[in-house]
C-alpha cells in the first residue's frame, strides 16, 4: 500500500502545472504585477534572436515582450530612472531614455525575456542557475552603447526611482571640485558599473557586494597596479568559495573609464564621512 500511494502521489505531482512567476512594476504607492504565463501570451510577445548573450556567452533565442510596452502600463514620475532588481540582490539603475525607445531598425531595444514554467532555461556557465524567470535582454546593444550591467537576469522587480545622486547624495564628490575633475566622470562610471552590486557610504540598493568606502576604500588596501589588475581579473589576485565579481574587459571598461573610476574612489576615500 505505501508504494502504491507513493506512485499515485508522484503521478499527481507530475500532472500539476508548473508554477508561473510574477514580475512587479512599482512607482511609489502604485504597483502592477505580470504573470509569466500571461506575458508569454502578450499581444506584443515575439520570438527574438540575441546574437551575443553576455550571460550565456553565445547566441540565444527567447520569447519576450518589449520592455517599453510593459512600462507604458504605469507612467513614470518626472525625472525618474528605472531600477531593475534581481532575486539575488543585484540592482541596476537604467536611464529611462535607454528603455523607452522602440529602437527602430538600427537602434537598441530592450525586451523582457520570459522563461516558460515548463521549460526552464539552462544554467549559466560557471553558475548553478539560469537567467529566469525574467531577463532584460537587448537587441543591437552596441547601437545605444548599452553596457552589460543593464542585462539584468533573474529579474523580480522593475521600479521607478529618482536618480541615484538624488536618492543618495552621500555618493556625490565634493561640490568644491572643478567640473573637469575626473572624479565627476568617475561617479557616472561607478553608477553604471559598480552600483548594481555595491553601495558607497551606505548609499545604494544592491546587496551583492560590500560597501566600497566603509570601513575602507579599495584604493586604501590595493596598490595602484593591483587594483587595476583586480578590476580586469579578480581571480588573478584571490579566490574565495562564493566569488561573484567578474572582471571588466577593455570593451566593458575602457582605460579612460577605469582611470575616472579610480579617481572617484580616491576622492570618496578622502572625503569619507
What can you see in these coordinates?
The protein has 273 residues and is of the alpha+beta class. The protein folds into two domains: 20-161, Sulfite Oxidase, Chain A, domain 2; 163-233 and 246-269, Orthogonal Bundle (Cytochrome Bc1 Complex, Chain D, domain 2). The protein has nine helices and nine strands. The chain has helices spanning 2-15, 36-40, 67-71, 96-100, 164-167, 182-193, 218-221, 224-232, 255-270, and strands at residues 22-27, 30-35, 46-53, 58-66, 80-86, 91-95, 109-114, 134-139, 155-162. Helix 6 (182-193) crosses helix 9. It starts with a helix and ends with a helix. Residues 5-17 have low confidence and may be disordered.
What would a concise description of this structure say?
The protein is built from 9 helices and 9 strands.
List the helices and strands and how they pair.
Elements: H1 2-15, E1 22-27, E2 30-35, H2 36-40, E3 46-53, E4 58-66, H3 67-71, E5 80-86, E6 91-95, H4 96-100, E7 109-114, E8 134-139, E9 155-162, H5 164-167, H6 182-193, H7 218-221, H8 224-232, H9 255-270
- The number of strands is 9
Strand order of the largest sheet: 2-1-9-5-6
CATH C-level label of the largest domain:
Alpha Beta
Shape: globular
Reading the helices and strands in chain order gives: HEEHEEHEEHEEEHHHHH
* Main beta sheet: 5 strands, mixed
What is the residue-mean pLDDT, rounded to a whole number?
91
List low-pLDDT spans: 5-17
Specify Rg, calculated over alpha carbons.
21 Å
User: Can you give the helix content as a percent range?
Assistant: 25-40%
Estimated share of beta-strand residues: 15-25%
Q: What is the CATH topology assignment of the largest domain?
A: Sulfite Oxidase, Chain A, domain 2
CATH superfamily of the largest domain: Oxidoreductase, molybdopterin-binding domain
Number of helices: 9
Class from secondary-structure proportions: alpha+beta
CATH arch. level architecture of the largest domain = Alpha-Beta Complex
Q: How many discrete domains?
A: 2
Our measurement of the CA-to-CA distance between the termini, rounded to an integer number of angstroms, reads 69 Å
